[in-house]
Design a protein that fits this description.
By secondary structure, the protein is α/β, with parallel strands linked by helices. Helix content is about 40%, strand content about 20%. Bound molecules: magnesium ion.
Length: about 250
């Protein structure tokens, strides 16, 4: 039965799954039922490959759409509906190259720039860094504040770009607005009259769900969840209320 009275939009990491892990076997049936009866979308900072590792294929197949790479790509029924390419300015690449040369950090492990859908990922130590390298850099960065300086530097030279500090060793660079707010904008355009329930674990100012929350309208609701267990509880409560109303 298709009820479809509400729209549910979920972050993945920390909201539907434990951090960097797969959806639990206990949670999957509730999620499946919700996605069958309501309009469910997923929005993740990861790309589609990583999302498929975290959420069972059966559950993904029931979703209306899957926004990968912070809304820079949309997949519906396994088909790529759109994908954004960030046209990286040469001046930015030159600036980053310069930073790798002149940084006071002693080690370089290669692969300093990585192209991802809708963004560029930059790291002084480089993405080939081992686990030990990463820890060493992260500790040095916490003391020296290098990544904050990189972010300030890029923002000053490229006012149209945003920089987010994520993970241990890198920063994400992307055009302003190329964030999870894109998922909310798409849904509003395609289902203008249906309220959105958004669930995220990083909804505060510097979190990667903040932009989605800011894009919500007055009739929409934002749920900040501590972990996937809270999401599971809210979904189960919603389904129980539905059963009672039958
Ligand atoms: Mg999250």
């Amino acid at each position: 039965m298709c009820h479809a009275g509400e729209i549910f939009l979920f972050d993945v990491d920390g909201t539907l799954t434990p951090p960097r892990q797969t959806m639990t076997r206990e949670f999957t049936p509730s999620f499946d039922r919700l996605a069958t009866e309501e309009i469910v979308y997923i929005v993740s900072g990861s790309d589609i490959k990583k999302i498929r590792e975290q959420v069972p294929e059966s559950a993904l197949a029931k979703c209306q759409g899957i926004f990968g790479s912070s809304g820079n790509e949309l997949w519906i029924d396994g088909v790529l509906v759109y994908g954004h390419e960030f046209a990286v300015p040469d001046s930015l690449l030159a600036q980053l190259k310069n930073w790798v040369i002149h940084s006071e950090y002693p080690d370089r492990r290669g692969k300093h720039v990585e192209y991802r859908p809708g963004m560029l990922n930059f790291s002084t130590v480089g993405r080939r860094a081992s686990l030990a390298d990463r820890r060493k850099y992260a500790q040095w960065d916490a003391e020296s504040g290098e990544r904050h300086r990189i972010a300030d530097n890029i923002r000053a030279n490229h006012p149209g770009l945003q920089v987010a500090i994520g993970g241990e060793i890198s920063v994400d660079i992307y055009p302003a607005g190329w964030d999870k707010s894109q998922a909310v904008a798409y849904i509003k355009e395609h289902h203008p009259a249906i309220p959105i329930n958004f669930f995220g674990d990083k909804t505060s100012k510097h979190g990667n769900d903040y932009s989605a929350v800011c894009a919500l309208g007055e009739t929409d609701r934002a749920f900040t969840v501590k972990d996937y267990k809270v999401t599971e509880k809210i979904i189960n409560a919603f389904l129980e209320v539905k059963d009672d109303g039958r």
